[in-house]
TrEMBL record:
The keyword Transmembrane helix does not apply. Pfam families: Semialdhyde_dh, Semialdhyde_dhC_1. This is N-acetyl-gamma-glutamyl-phosphate reductase. Its EC number is 1.2.1.38. Coiled coil: none annotated. It is found in: Cytoplasm. Catalyzes the NADPH-dependent reduction of N-acetyl-5-glutamyl phosphate to yield N-acetyl-L-glutamate 5-semialdehyde.
Length: 309
């Protein structure tokens, strides 16, 4: 039996983790009374009693929880932004390389990737790792997400009966190019500069479509669209959660994988202008699903256990 504590179970990510684990016979959820939810001593007791502690908290609170941990056996899986580029933390995207999977298997500190970052990194990391794009390639990224990515406050705003009419339309945000996912997008991919990033929130609950356009003439290796597609298909061929599709459809809905914990990658365009697209659920492979996948790997279980593919 594995003892699990979810610090921040009341939030969207924490609730989804609880839903995936609540009925598992191999998991015991350590409960923290509501009145002690912000009590550091009570949280410390729960963290130290856990084999796995999920942190579903704002960054400052996540850092506090890590500082509270006094147990050498507790594995911490942090879903916040706080530790995604921190030394000593495994980056929880095991499909990127054998090194990333081994780090998730062995580390006691695992950072769950950000949702927008997951889509970008799934497309760009293989390009840089394979020498197809140089680290100084001028990457751009467009990302459309459902409103659940904004947490309880944004969900309430979108589902309010008297919401502003502007919520009926897709809305760009992060226009100052200072989005909190940019540091991990740059660092994990080994880029010399951050990409130009265009996040958009739209009027649907969950799902995400992340696009990265490429100019063939700027690639370090001269590869056409079919070469790129074959490369991605081979790169992710052995993985359960990331699949490369054979054809690029005419329309790619961002909610295509809502409720699913996997990711699909599409490659289209032509040899001059190539379009890479990653589709997944911002609450699945973009958050809670990725966290549970990391837990399964860290425990030596089938990574698909209690997840939907």
């Amino acid at each position: 039996m594995t003892d699990v504590f979810i610090d921040g179970k009341e939030g969207t990510t924490g609730l989804r983790i609880f839903e995936r684990l609540g009925s598992r016979p191999d998991i015991h959820i350590i409960a923290l009374p509501e009145e002690k939810r912000k009590d550091p001593d009570a949280r410390k007791e729960c963290i130290d009693a856990a084999d796995i502690a999920f942190l579903c908290l704002p960054d400052a609170a996540a850092r506090e929880s890590v500082s509270l941990c006094g147990s050498t056996r507790t594995k911490i899986i942090d879903a916040s932004t706080a530790h995604r580029t921190a030394p000593g933390w495994a980056y929880g995207f095991p499909e990127l390389s054998p090194r990333h999977r081994e780090a998730v298997e062995t580390s006691r500190r695992i950072a769950v990737p950000g949702c927008h970052a997951s889509g970008f990194i799934s497309l760009v990391y293989p390009l840089v790792a394979g020498g197809i794009a140089a680290p100084d390639y001028p990457f751009a990224c467009h990302s459309v997400t459902g409103y659940s990515g904004g947490g309880k406050k944004m969900i309430a705003e979108y589902e309010a009966a008297n919401r502003p009419k502007e919520f009926d339309s897709p809305r760009q945000y992060g226009v100052g190019q200072a989005h909190k996912h940019l540091p991990e997008m740059q660092a994990v991919c080994g880029l010399s500069s951050a990409p130009a990033f265009d996040p958009i929130v739209a009027d649907f609950y969950s799902g995400m479509c992340v696009s990265v356009p490429l100019f063939g003439r700027l690639l370090a290796k001269k590869m056409g669209v079919n070469d790129i597609k074959s490369y991605f298909a081979e790169y992710y061929a052995s993985h359960n959660f990331v699949k490369v599709e054979e054809e690029m459809p005419s329309y790619i809905p961002a909610n295509m994988l809502s409720g699913n914990d996997g990711m699909r990658i599409f490659v289209g365009g032509n040899d001059e202008r190539i379009l890479l697209v990653s589709v997944f659920d911002n609450l699945g492979k973009g958050a809670s699903g990725a966290a549970v996948q990391c837990m399964n790997i860290a425990l030596g279980l089938d990574e698909r256990t209690s997840l939907s593919l």
